[in-house]
TrEMBL record:
InterPro entries: ATP-NAD_kinase_N, CERK_C, CERK_PH, Diacylglycerol_kinase_cat_dom, Lipid_Phosphate_FormReg, NAD/diacylglycerol_kinase_sf. PANTHER family: CERAMIDE KINASE, SPHINGOSINE KINASE. This is Ceramide kinase. The chain crosses the membrane at residues 482-505. It comes from Gadus morhua.
Amino acid sequence: MCTSRCTSRCTSGAKGSRRWQKIPQRDDEDSPHAFTVSYVQRARRAAWRLRDVTFLCADAALCGRWVRTLTEQLSALAQRPRRLLVYINPLSGKRHGERIYRHKVAPLFSRANISTSVIVTQHANHARDHLRTEAELQNYDGVVCVGGDGMFSEVMHGLVLRTQRDQGRDHHHPDQDLAQTGLRIGIIPAGSTDCICFATVGANDPVTSSLHIIVGDCQPMDVCSVHHGDAFLRYSVSLLGYGFYGDVLSDSERRRWMGPARYDVSGVKKFLSHRYYEGTVSYLPASDVLGTPRDRAPCRTGCVVCQYNRPLEEEKEGKLKMEESHEGLAWRSVRGKFLAINAVSMSCACPRSPQGLSPAAHLADGTTDLILVRNSSRLAFLRHLLRHTSKDDQFDLGFVEVHRVRRFRFTPRFCQSDSELDLQELLQEKEQKEKEVAGSQARRILGQLCREHPACCRTPPCASCWNCDGEILPHADIQVRYTTLLLLFLPLLLLLAPLLLLLLAHST
Ligand SMILES: CCCCCCCCCCCCC/C=C/[C@@H](O)[C@H](COP(=O)(O)O)NC(=O)CCCCCCCCCCCCCCC
Ligand SMILES: Nc1ncnc2c1ncn2[C@@H]1O[C@H](COP(=O)(O)OP(=O)(O)O)[C@@H](O)[C@H]1O
Ligand SMILES: [Ca+2]
């Protein structure tokens, strides 16, 4: 970016050190020609800041040439977006979404010569439906959502569903591969958890996110399709959690008025109620991949593990066929009582848990880390939860197991057939289970109902629900499959040199 304001210049310091120094504003006569270059500087942690440096020029022609050349070079950078479609959820988090956008983001976009169409949503699913049916996507280089994980999820659903429809793919078919979306999504964090932003950028900071969008960064990510039988339910990119995180979410929905604190209140409540859920988790291990969930190194942009593990487009079909032919052999099943079943396709790092639910989960390797937390004492579960707030290993506990998987399915116990149920367990259960579903007779009837009328699975009394990126799924028995697809504007660039990244340019 070039402006006529003088704010700093490169000088030789007293000790010969060359560094940029602030200089006072001068009259036009002293420095008639100047241009300012704006650049991105790494600040604390993963935060990025915009900095300016002004160059003085005695010669007008030379100054003009510099400005033209810089502008030309910058407009030749094809990965940078020029036109963005922005959706703002005015009710996200502490309801600051619009203010954050107007004060922190819009000025940066306009400095970078990015034109925007801004839509403030009027109701839930406004952004999803607009993207899915009406938005003229050919007019944009990317979509930006201002809000929390729920808002990202809406935008992602709109784009992915539109792409599947345009490509003639049936998203209800559980084995249908997802077609790649043509547009990238940027996230401006303004929500309650903002885990997708934190886990990809390393910070929840609107300015940092805006700068990532401006310089056109790009990061693929894993998207999983969740089905109930042959019916498509949702896509997920971060957490699919049954039991504890499902219960926390459903309880927290009633406390939306509390803002982000609702999760802590519901978290304590659900921790104290200490409920476990029975069922069978079956999964297809990702046996042919580099890395494990117990690795120490977190995933970063350009991650070699992701590159190695992600099947090439042309290999996908072959891999799928191979998986299917080995399906019976490769699938494994775990039956039991679980406090939580969490499938995370990225670390799920967030301010509450800076390392995340699975610190070594990969952003774009086509797998998810399936974490099974079996029934244990309150104290043991608290130890497990507390380890999410430090660097201690939350998996190094007897009642916790973690598997890296390509697919999984879950059948809650009340949906299993009688022959699958163990009579012994039924009798024990009769003594201790919740009042609502007393006795095996009721359970048998419930099981039958579930088979004949799947809608009854919606809120059975002995079941939890799935937390799917912060939205509640209407069914408990699901099948899940992973594909790597979406392109985000927001990568983790922690490996890059600390100082100068890129310039923004326009002349004044
Ligand atoms: C004792 C302290 C334990 C702290 C454990 C913290 C683990 C936090 C892991 C959070 C993973 C978050 C995954 C992301 C989910 C989001 O997609 C989703 C939607 O986000 P949005 O509102 O921005 O749209 N957010 C959520 O589902 C919220 C999950 C928040 C869970 C907070 C749980 C707090 C637990 C507190 C237990 C306290 C026990 C105290 C005992 C005396
Ligand atoms: N204008 C709106 N009015 C009501 N709900 C909305 C609106 N726009 C989006 N939503 C919905 O609000 C929910 C929460 O949004 P999100 O941005 O994730 O905020 P938070 O992080 O506070 O949960 C999402 O399910 C989204 O679909
Ligand atoms: Ca992954």
